[in-house]
Amino acid sequence: MSKRVIVAATDGMPCGSAAVEWAARQAQRSGCALRIVHAYEWDWYGTRYAEVARVLAAAVADDAYARARLLAPETDIWTDTLIGPLLPRLLEGARFAEMLVVGHGRQGPSSVGREVVSNAPCPVVVVRNERRPQPVA
């Protein structure tokens, strides 16, 4: 029997980090493994910047891994950086998942968010970024 897996999507923004943190805690509680997915498109500018895009994507995945590891030290965690359009990559990444966890940082639902919730092959958890800047004075 294969291990149950929670998939967390991140873009490196605060809402993506909140999704990874929530997913790490849930994976720890439920005994699931955690797969952190970061999808990116590098071909907007041709192959000239492909290596830069790969390095930046790896940095996003590495940061997400470090955050998750701190919160779920006993959990099996790995990252995948997927090249291509966000929506198809997320849906593909969640194909065998127990659940897909995504962040929500805007006032209203994004078109990608609606498409993920409507088309995901598993339950979807949308995590709001509740971190708000604290007043300085």
Automatic annotation (TrEMBL):
Tell me the InterPro entries matching this sequence. Answer: Rossmann-like_a/b/a_fold, UspA
Q: Name one Pfam family in it.
A: Usp
What Gene3D superfamilies does UniProt report for this protein, alphabetically? HUPs
Which parts of the chain span the membrane according to its record?
none
Q: Which domain of life is it from?
A: Bacteria
SUPFAM superfamilies, alphabetized: Adenine nucleotide alpha hydrolases-like
Start and end residues of each UspA domain: 4-128
Q: What is this protein called?
A: Nucleotide-binding universal stress UspA family protein
* Organism this protein belongs to: Paractinoplanes abujensis
